[in-house]
Amino acid sequence: MKALFVGLTGIMLVMSSGCVTMVDQNTMAQQQADMEKLRENVQRIQEKISGIELEQQNLQRDVGSIKGAPREDLVVRNRLDTLERQVQSLSAARDADRKQIVSQVANIVGSSSGGSSGHASSGHGGGGSAQVGVEHVVEAGQTLSAIAAAYKVKSSSIKKANNMKSDTLRVGQKLFIPKS
Asked: Residue 134 maps to which CATH number?
């Protein structure tokens, strides 16, 4: 745009030069009017250029902020992914701890029940055959599957040995736990 201004100024100089004696008054007045119009046009063009430059700066700033926004989103997304992996890791660790605790409790229950109330019995089980096992007294909150896991036997073995038709237990109920 500056080159246009320089070019227009050069044209004005060429037009204004020449022999004054050969140019009449009307032509000079016309040239001066044309020069004034050219100056006004140049001034308007310079104002437009300034406005365009300002708008370009604003657009560059906006583009910069837009380019920055996805990076922030990416940072947030990466942080969320990291947190999600941590939650999954903690959940897996919690499950492993839970299994370990259940196993330890089962061993404690099995060893304490097995040492104090183990007995051989011929009255339990099908067909009148003698089975070896222990007696377990059901406590509040216990389930058949948890008791079976504690003694490392199948739930179906306990049900069969006690002639049970369902998994329903009562607090204080005595169960014969067959040795596997």
From this structure: 3.10.350.10
